[in-house]
Amino acid sequence: MLCAALSIVVTAGIVFVLLFETIAFFREVPITEFLFGTEWTPLFLNKSYGVLPLVTGTLLVSVIAMLVALPAGLLSAIYLSEYAPSGVRRIVKPVLEILAGVPTVVYGYFALLFVTPLLQQVIPGLAAFNALGPGIVMGIMILPLVSSLSEDALYSVPNGLREGAYALGATRMQAALRVVVPAAFSGISAAAILAVSRAIGETMIVAIAAGQQPRLTLNPLVPVETMTTYIVQVSLGDTPTGTIEYRTIFAVGMLLFASTLALNLASHWLRGRFREEYA
Amino acid sequence: MRAARTSVWAAFSDRLLQGLGLLVLALALAALGALLVDVLVDGAGRLSWQFLTSYPSRRPELSGILPALVGTIFVVGLTAVIAVPLGVGAAVYLEEYGTQSRLARLVEINIANLAGVPSIIYGLLGLGLFVRMMAMGRSVLAGAATLALLVLPVVILSTREALRAVPKSLREGSYALGATRWQTIWRQVLPSALPGILTGLILALSRAIGETAPLITIGALTYVPFLPADIWSPFTALPIQIFNWVSRPQAGFTEAAAAGILVLLALLLATNATAILIRDRLQKRRNA
Q1: By C-alpha distance, which of B176, B204, B180, B219 is closest to B275?
Q2: Nearest residue on chain B to A227, judged by CA atoms?
Q3: In whole angstroms, what is the distance from residue B42 CA to residue A247 CA?
Q4: ipTM of this model?
Q5: Residue B75 burial (10 A CB sphere; 0-12, 13-18, 19+)
Q6: Counting Cβ atoms within 10 Å, is residue A101 exposed (0-12), middle (13-18) or buried (19+)?
Q7: How buried is residue B76: exposed, middle or buried, by Cβ count under 10 Å (0-12/13-18/19+)?
C-alpha cells in the first residue's frame, strides 16, 4: 500500500521539483520570450532565452530517427508476424532484444566514430558533429521498440480477418497491407507515438554525436543542440544553485517532460482503444 | 489476360514485401555486427589487467577504469537495496490486495507513465530532491536513489507479471489449510514467483548499469582518482567514464573509451547470464 503510493509520490516529486525551479525561472524571463525566442545563449555574456533552437534541434534528430525506425520497424513487424518461419524468428527476436539492451552511451560512440565518418565519405559537407548520424543511430536504437509493439498489434488481429482475405484470393501481401495493417492501425500508431517520445527524450547519443551549438536550422549536416544535450552540457559545468543558468535546465526539463507525457498519454489512449476493438 | 497479369504482379509484390522485411532485419543484424566489430577493433588492444586496475589519467595510455568499475558496482548494488523492497512491495499490493479501487487504478496508469518518462528527467528530480533539498550532495547514495526511482516502474511491472503467473490453485490450497492472506503470499506465492521476479530484477538492474544521463545530471564526477569509500563519497560510473573519454579529441582516449565499452558490455552480459542461470536453476528445483 505504502509502496504503491510511492509511485504517485515520485510523479508528484518530478512535477514539484520541475515546477518549483521553472516558476522561479519565469519570474526572471517572460514565458513568451522562452517559447518564441529564436536565440538560446544563456551561458554567454549576452543572454537570450529563446528555446526554439533547442526544440528544432530535438525535432530534427527525432524526425530522422523516425524516418529510419518507422518504415523499418513496421516492415520487420509485418515480416515477423505474417511471413517469418519459426527458425528465423528464433534468431531475429534475440538480436532485436540485444539491440534494445545496448546502453545509449555505446550508441553515441557508434554514431560519432563509425556512422558519421562513414557518411562523410558519401556526403562531403558533413560536419563531425551533425544531426544525421545520431538520427540514424537513434533510429536503429528505437527499431526494436517499434517492431515489437507493432508486431503485438498485428498479432492480436483476429485470424478470421486474414482467412477472409485469403478466401477472396488475396496474397499474403494484400492481406497484410489491406486488411491486417489497417485493422491494427491504432495499435501501430500507439507504437509510433511512443517511439517519438523515446526519441525526444534520448540523451547520450545526441550529447556525444550531435554537437552543442543551439541553432535554428533544419539542415541535418551541421551541429545542432537538443533539449537533452543542453541539460547535460549545463550539468557537466559547475553551475551554482539558484542562478538563472541552473534554472534554465529545469525549464527545459519541464518542456521535455510535458511533451513526452502528452505523447505517452496519447499512446496509452490509442492502445486502449485498440484493445476495445478486439476485446 | 488482364487477370493473369495482375496475379503475376500480386505474386511478385508479395515476394517483394517478404524480401524487404528480410532485408530490414538483415540490416539491423548488420548494424549490431558493425557496432560490436567497431568497438572490438578499437578497444581490444587497450584491454589489459593494467587497464582494469588503474586510475584515470591525463595520459591516455596510462588511464584505467578501476574507479568507474567499482563506482558502478557500488551504485547499482545500492540501487538494488533501495528498489527491490519498494518495487516488490508495490507489486504485491497491486496484485494481491489492490482491488479495483480508485487508488489502484490511478497507481497503475501512473506507473505506466513513469516507465515512459525520459531518464534525464529522473536526473533532474534527483538533482532537485536528493542532491539539493535532502542535501545528500553528489554522493553514491544520491545516485543510487535516483537510479532506484528510475528502475522502480520496471521492477513493479515485471514482478506483477511473475505474480500473475502463479496458479490460483496454489493460493486456494493455502487458504484451504487455514493460512492467512499474508502467510499465503509469503510462504507460497512469493517463493513460487521467485524465478520470474529475479529475472525481472536483474533486467532492471542491467538497465541501471547502462544509464548515463541521470547520473551526469545529478553531478557524478567525470574525473575520480580514488575509490568511493562509503555511501557519501563522490563517485563516477562506467558509462560516465566512457562518455568523458569519447568527448576528448585525442585518439588514445577513443581507444580507452572503446575498451571501457567492452568492459561495460561484458558486465551486462555477465548480469544477464546470471539472470538466465538463476531462473533455470530455480525452475529445475521446482520441477524436481
Answers
A1: B204
A2: B120
A3: 39
A4: 0.84
A5: buried
A6: middle
A7: buried
Q: B253: buried, middle or exposed (CB in 10 Å: 19+, 13-18, 0-12)?
A: buried
pLDDT by residue (tens digit) across B108-159?
Answer: 778 878 888 888 888 888 888 887 777 777 777 888 888 888 898 888 888 8
The upper half-sphere exposure of residue A203, i.e. CA atoms within 13 Å in the direction of its Cβ, equals: 29
CB contact under 8 A, B217 and A80: no
Question: A56-89, pLDDT tens digit by residue?
Answer: 888 999 999 999 999 999 999 998 888 888 888 8
Question: What is the C-alpha separation between A62 and A26, in angstroms, rounded?
Answer: 27
Residue A107 lies in a domain: yes
How do residues A213-272 score in pLDDT, each as one tens digit? Answer: 788 778 888 888 888 888 888 888 767 777 777 888 888 888 888 898 898 888 888 887
Boundaries of domain holding B9:
2-46
Question: Which residue from B42, B107, B121 is facing A253, i.e. has the nearest CB?
Answer: B121
Same domain, B94 and B129: yes
What is the number of domains present in chain B?
A: 2
Provide the chain A residues 121-160 that lie in CB contact (below 8 A) with chain B. Answer: 140, 143
Cα(B259)–Cα(B255) distance, rounded to whole angstroms? 6
Q: How many CB atoms lie within 10 A of CB B223?
A: 12
**Residue A169, by phi and psi: left (phi above 0), alpha (psi -120 to 50) or beta?**
left
Q: In this structure, which amino acid lies at residue B43? A: G
CA A27 to chain centroid: 31
Nearest to B150 by CA among B211, B91, B70: B211
**pLDDT, position B5:** 63
A 49-88 near B (Cβ less than 8 A): 72, 75-76, 78-80, 83-84, 88
Decide if B29 and A95 are in contact by the 8 Å CB cutoff.
yes
User: What would the DSSP string read from start to end of A210-223?
Assistant: T-S-------TTS-
Cβ contacts of A81 within 8 Å, gap of 6 or more = A151, A154, A155, A180
Q: How far is A271 from chain B (nearest CA, A)?
A: 12
On whether residue A244 sits in a domain, the answer given is: no
Q: Which three cell numbers stand for residue B260?
A: 571501457
* Distance, C-alpha A212 to centroid of its chain: 19
Q: Is the dihedral of CA A140, A144, A145, A147 positive or negative?
A: positive
Whichever domain contains A156, its CATH number is 1.10.3720.10
Q: Do B31 and A231 touch (CB under 8 A)?
A: no
| Nearest by CB: B117 against A1, A104, A257 | A257
Euclidean distance between CA atoms A235 and A212, whole angstroms: 13
Contact present, A161 and A183 (Cβ < 8 Å): yes
Q: Find the helix packing angle between B140-164 and B102-116, rounded to 10°.
A: 120
Instruction: Judge if B146 and B67 occupy the same domain.
Output: yes
Residues B40 and B168 in one domain: no
